[in-house]
Design a protein that fits this description.
The protein has 562 residues and is an alpha/beta fold. The protein is built from 16 helices and 22 strands. Strand 7 and strand 8 form a beta hairpin. The structure holds 1-O-alpha-D-glucopyranosyl-D-fructose and calcium ion (CA).
């Protein structure tokens, strides 16, 4: 496998709406990101992924684009974007844009024209179908945002497809004129100096030609047909040939519903499709039979076997992204760690687990200061369309009590990740002196950047050490390209793995629980010759015969005799 510059990169994801509000209108903006570049440079990240900032009616907070060539006024201007690309470049940070091309906003001029009549040249740029045999929706597909994926248009008496909200009509990728228009747009952004692309729902572009019914017993009937659909690889190869191959750019596809074998097809270098993908298997490990809204307790052994499977199956064949958090997931400390007594220890432990693995780590804003889920007290406090739609459906259609539904959504709502970044202990956590668009997490008085920078044992400095380790001359190649092996796979709370190559070996031991655990070195680890590279507790000498791991303790040991 050919070595690439981004193999050793670390990506930081910003949700611009909630990062920093430079003009105090309550909404984060591009100038706010520019002002915080020194903070990101201090952390040591290489790539900055921005969730969408293009013009949008904000039905899905920017994932519903009405003009790919302009910036939403609340975020700023194209000039601000050029300034951000330039200023970030000056401090060694590359910009990764979020490319949302499975759908546009229904306010995009293309859709306004397409929906005028059945004959116009843009009709076929979207997916219009006649009513089904019973006069109703064309099939039984269910939207990620609850309800049918079909919206009836009175004027032309046809339905249009929307996998997400009804204000996010799906583009018809069968239409080559549409595809050419998309490629032109992405090249325009790359010509402006963007060097990374995060491709939204990218494995959903190719729908089955017959639009047949999905399996009604699945949580999302239809997804099994349009995810990884019939022509997805030909579209990605064409996009690679007409866009990616013309630039020095790193691409990451957001690909829910992929297993390692398919991820290898998307990411192996000889396929000329994508560089890496976000897989979701570890993100659904706590989803119940009804899907994400029906969370079940974490099955830890399953979690560590999933992550290890991805390490082993993609080794030498593809490339992993490594993440616990993003703008669609509840905060990992609350989900997989301990956001009360052991918030700091479990934050550092979770980071250790993935940052010592092979792949490109992604840090989501606030993760590096240990932000946790936010307790939303009423339905009105939620902003996320996915959550609001689910709430309405659960209370009105399923008859759940408001209290039950608030508890369920409180654990999994995407808004847990979208409360504003906490910069200091002043009003609104220093995010804005306006009225913030969404609730500030009450934790801001103790969990904030100002405190993190002052505290040498903070989670922030621990992340900085992890990033430095990945880039260090001594351990970088081992962490980026070394082999991986899970040890003690059936231990109910220790996540133990080694990374090694011909010359070096690291041992990573993470206690995923709040009980003390004893680690007895198996044959291959001689504890008498180890050196503690990183620990989230102050740790004395390593005993030769066993190590006692404290609650949520993580250790990275260098095995000297290897
Ligand atoms: O998410 C698509 C996706 O994979 C969904 O499963 C999403 O993660 C869902 O919220 C999980 O329940 C992408 C974006 O990341 C998301 O913010 C957008 O809402 C969505 O596409 C539509 O653009
Ligand atoms: Ca603002």
């Amino acid at each position: 496998m050919e070595k690439k510059w981004w193999h050793s990169s670390v990506v930081y994801q910003v949700y611009p709406r909630s990062f920093y509000d430079s003009n105090n209108d309550g909404v984060g903006d591009l100038k706010g990101i520019i002002e915080k570049l020194p903070y990101l440079q201090n952390l040591g990240v290489d790539i900055l992924w921005l969730s969408p900032v293009y013009s949008s009616p904000m039905d899905d907070n920017g994932y519903d684009i009405s003009d790919y060539y302009s910036i939403a006024p609340e975020f700023g201007t194209l000039g601000d974007m050029d300034e951000l690309i330039g200023e970030a470049g000056r401090v060694g940070i590359k910009i990764m844009m979020d490319v949302v091309v499975n759908h546009t906003s229904d306010e995009h001029p293309w859709f306004i024209e397409s929906s005028k009549d059945r004959e116009n040249p843009k009709r076929d740029w979207y997916i219009w179908k006649n009513p089904g045999a019973d006069g109703g929706v064309p099939n039984n597909w269910i939207s990620f945002f609850s309800g049918t994926t079909w919206e009836f248009d009175e004027r032309t008496e046809q339905y249009y497809l929307h996998l997400f909200s009804k204000k996010q009509p799906d583009l018809n990728w069968e239409n080559s004129a549409l595809r050419e228009e998309i490629y032109k747009m992405i090249n325009w952004w790359l010509d402006k100096g963007v060097m990374g692309l995060r491709l939204d729902v990218i494995n959903g572009l190719s729908k089955p030609h017959d639009y047949r019914n999905g399996d009604p017993d699945l949580p999302l009937p239809g997804a099994e047909l349009y995810m990884n659909g019939p022509r997805i690889h030909s579209y990605l190869k064409e996009m690679n040939e007409k866009v990616f191959s013309l630039h020095d750019v790193v691409t990451v596809g957001e690909t829910n519903f992929v297993a390692p074998s398919l991820a290898i097809k998307y990411t192996s270098q000889d396929r000329n499709e994508l560089d890496m993908v976000f897989q979701f298997e570890h993100m659904s490990v706590d989803a119940g039979p009804e899907g994400k809204w029906d969370p079940v307790p974490l099955d830890f052994i399953r979690l560590k076997n999933i992550l290890s499977k991805w390490q082993n199956k993609l080794y030498g064949k593809g490339w992993n992204s490594l993440y616990w958090n993003n703008h669609d997931q509840p905060r990992a400390i609350s989900r997989f760690g301990n956001d009360k007594k052991y918030r700091v220890e479990s934050a550092k432990m979770l980071a250790t687990v993935i940052h010592l693995m092979q792949g490109t780590p992604f840090i989501y804003q606030g993760e590096e200061i240990g932000m946790t889920n936010c307790s939303f007290d009423s339905p009105e406090e939620y902003r996320d369309i996915e959550t609001v739609n689910y709430y309405k459906k659960a209370v009105q259609e399923k008859g759940f009590s408001e209290k039950t539904v608030l508890e369920k959504i409180g654990k999994v709502s995407r808004d847990n990740a979208r409360t504003p970044m906490q910069w200091d202990s002043s009003t609104n956590g220093g995010f804005s002196s306006g009225i913030p668009w969404i609730k500030i997490n009450p934790s801001y008085e103790s969990v904030n950047v100002e405190k993190a920078i002052e505290d040498k044992d903070s989670i922030f400095y621990y992340y900085r050490k992890l990033i430095k380790l990945r880039k260090s001359n001594k351990y970088g190649d081992l962490i980026v390209y070394g082999k991986y092996k899970l040890l003690m796979e059936n231990h109910r709370s220790l996540f133990v793995y080694t990374r090694w190559d011909e010359g070096q070996k690291l041992l990573v031991i993470c206690n995923f629980g709040e009980q003390r655990e004893e680690f007895f070195p198996e044959g291959e680890i001689e504890m008498t010759h180890t050196n503690v590279l990183l620990s989230n507790y102050s740790r004395g000498e390593i005993a030769a015969d066993k190590i006692v791991l404290r609650p949520y303790e993580s250790l990275v040991l260098e095995c000297l005799h290897h």
